[in-house]
Amino acid sequence: xxxxxxxxxxxxxxxxxxxxxxxxxxxxxxxxxxxxxxxxxxxxxxxxxxxxxxxxxxxxxxxxxxxxxxxxxxxxxxxxxxxxxxxxxxxxxxxxxxxxxxxxxxxxxxxxxxxxxxxxxxxxxxxxxxxxxxxxxxxxxxxxxxxxxxxxxxxxxxxxxxxxxxxxxxxxxxxxxxxxxxxxxxxxxxxxxxxxxxxxxxxxxxxxxxxxxxxxxxxxxxxxxxxxxxxxxxxxxxxxxxxxxxxxxxxxxxxxxxxxxxxxxxxxxxxxxxxxxxxxxxxxxxxxxxxxxxxxxxxxxxxxxxxxxxxxxxxxxxxxxxxxxxxxxxxxxxxxxxxxxxxxxxxxxxxxxxxxxxxxxxxxxxxxxxxxxxxxxxxxxxx
Length: 383
Description:
Blueprint: H1 2-7, H2 9-34, H3 40-43, H4 62-108, H5 120-134, H6 140-161, H7 171-215, H8 222-270, H9 273-283, E1 286-294, E2 297-307, H10 311-316, H11 324-334, H12 355-377
Antiparallel strand pairs: 1-2
Helix pairs in contact: 4-6, 4-7, 5-7, 5-8, 6-7, 7-8, 11-12
């Protein structure tokens, strides 16, 4: 019958159509069975960018576009911290200069070494001023160096943010920016309090010194008694302030100790054999990072330095979403052919997973969500 159909032009056309339909159906079944395509439930909806919520186009550079918003956020946050650090450092540096011009000369003239006599209030004023001189604060040269480093980093980040293809800031640089911000903030708080207290003390000491010179010749007046009461109030205020600061430091020290202990216990949990085994494909250092999806294909990008996998990149791909698609994305990343070292041998189509495989992927996703930020801070994942 078929040879007869082939001799007929119409019959030949019908045979060709039948062969094409059968071939296409057979190839689709093979591709699905081998895991080359995502399940129908996974491809009904286009991939949603986790930052903007916009469906990613299937273009050659779509993987770059999906990560650029995360990189921009990181750079904006870094610039914000550097700008605040620069402001704090400038305030601290001005206070240092004011101290050098106003307060330091007092020591040179031996004002704080003047005889105390029997005046208890004056004695306390001198003692408090001497304590201000003895405080351990960041010096002017160190603050100037900190300010210069902040300015240099700020220019670097600004330049990087203007590039056509911005790259993520290294973890070491993010940590340095955090340290500079903390140092500048502390210097500002310490120096603004120091210059304020010292000015008040010097003012009161000078007024009481002038009063003492006149006491032998001029009867005490209401104004002088008011000055004396003002000095006593200042002493009481500064003493209360120092007691409150000491109590706050003690409480903060205890809180920091508790936090460090809790952090260390949390970190030890993340280092358990079970968690480390689940996260091995992500914590291993390589020269590639997940870059995004081009249609249904996961793309990786080369990196000049060996680094663990980027938590932000994993999240940007939707692999941390508690859904079937999120688990499939995580399996696709961890089993990608471009990965060397520890990786998963698992079909990226979840309908072919065993219960154990499903549990393995779910456990890894939960571990990334629970310990991810801590592991980034400890350098076991990239930012």
